Amino acid sequence: MEAALKIAPGVMLWRERLDRAAQKALLDAVLGAAEFYRPVMPGSGAPFSVEETNFGPLGWYSDRDGYRYTATHPKTGAPWPAIPTALLALWDATTGYGAPPQCCLVNLYRAGARMGLHQDRDEQAADAPVLSVSLGDDALFRIGGATRRGPTQSLKLSSGDVLSFGGPARLAFHGIDRIVPGTSTLVPGGGRINLTLRRVTK
Length: 202
Prior knowledge:
Elements: E1 5-8, E2 11-14, H1 20-31, E3 51-55, E4 59-63, E5 66-70, H2 85-95, E6 103-109, E7 115-118, E8 130-136, E9 138-143, E10 153-157, E11 162-165, E12 174-180, E13 192-198
Antiparallel strand pairs: 1-2, 2-11, 3-6, 4-5, 6-13, 7-12, 8-11, 8-13, 9-10, 9-12
């Protein structure tokens, strides 16, 4: 495990924070959890290019009516499964925040999927950082500042990498430009899984 790299004020990156065994254990937890679904954009109803699911008492969701957190799966009506203990331990070890995450959003990127620049701003707990875990194929991650048109920088995120952004970077615009197919054999069928831990309420 490498030491954390300071990418920008409030942005920290741990390269290979999770070894192959830990990655596989998390992948197994994801594949055994709530089913993936494809959310749609507010208003237009255009489908996301990624598939999503959640862990935790709250799950992030998007449909024609907007972005929000919900306690149940939008397709099945069942509560979201509990956040894996390994992720809770990782949150404690890397963020130092005094309360646990309440949501773990899981994004599945197959070949061609991407995520445009956006802010994570649906949470009341703006003092809590966002923690991101990468599994599977490499991704080109882009992060900037608090304005959409500000300068950005691009990072390659690989399987096992862990990234956090908080403090002055908590509302930074960020996204995934593209994934690099075939750079990992971890995810069945290829692709990348991203797990994003968030504290929602104060």
